[in-house]
Amino acid sequence: MNSVAKPSHPKGDFEATVLSNQQIRDCFYRLIVALEPAATGVFGSVNPGQFAMLDLTEASLPCAESIPNPLKDTAKRQLILRRPFSFSDVSIRQGPAGAVVQLEIMYCVLGPATVRMTGLSKGDKISLLGPLGNGFQIQPQKELAILIAGGMGAPPLVHLAGVLKTRFPAMRVVIFVGAKTCENLPFTLHIGNKTGLVLEEFQQLNVVSCYVATDDGSAGFKGYISGCVEGWLAENKWTADKTVFYACGPEAMLAAAAGLARKHHVDCQVSMERMMACGIGLCQSCAVEHKSGTEGQTEYRLCCQDGPVFDATNVIFNNEHK
User: Which of 74, 76, 89, 276 ranks highest by number of CB atoms within 10 Å?
Assistant: First the structure.
């Protein structure tokens, strides 16, 4: 896939009202918020892979009993900066006062901000800046989309899967999800009679080809998700120029996905993760090393503005020798 200039998307600072905040698994939650009516025009054209910066400075800590023991001390830290979150779903629904944007955010409790998020309840208000960045570029001419998610890289790929199934029904979608253990899979799980382990979030989207890999073998394929994908490619019929990889997760996994794509001559887009302080390019803290137009030379792009989604052929991953 050739590198192209990415467009600048409209964005805004909106008030979000919590509709629900459901615990999925031990440390995984699903937050659903509705935005003020002014957000409808901006979020109507959002792409999977874009994100928002949430202001959680006014959110209260939940009761001490509900804070995980490893986070009881760090949870008390004062929040100053917004936190970035991608969307697992974006929809526009008709409410009593007209069209309303509804966002679904899957998150893992890892620090003081996400601990506070667990205490959000219906009716609470938070400030949300978005949509930000550039998401996945859907290529309608492709016949097969292979989505590769590692851990909490799942949310934007859930969003992407929904968009592909709704708007591009002729495109075959195959999902691969990896985690260290079964307990680290950020999904609602159950055992299906015919399909084995079922990830409900993808089942609800009518994605029937979904494969799981865990490092310890506690669910699905034992080993890294890249090995699971490699096995599938060897056992199934597909055409390289009609296939595209979309990947989101830890950088080592993204590098492995990019390596598979390079080996099999398949287009590949990766959603990178960096620490972000502002989300709009001011702090320059989220640099991604990227090939420049000069052979052998690199430059730095901002994950928040140029990404977070990049053409994998242009990214210099941290584990690559320069």
Answer: 276
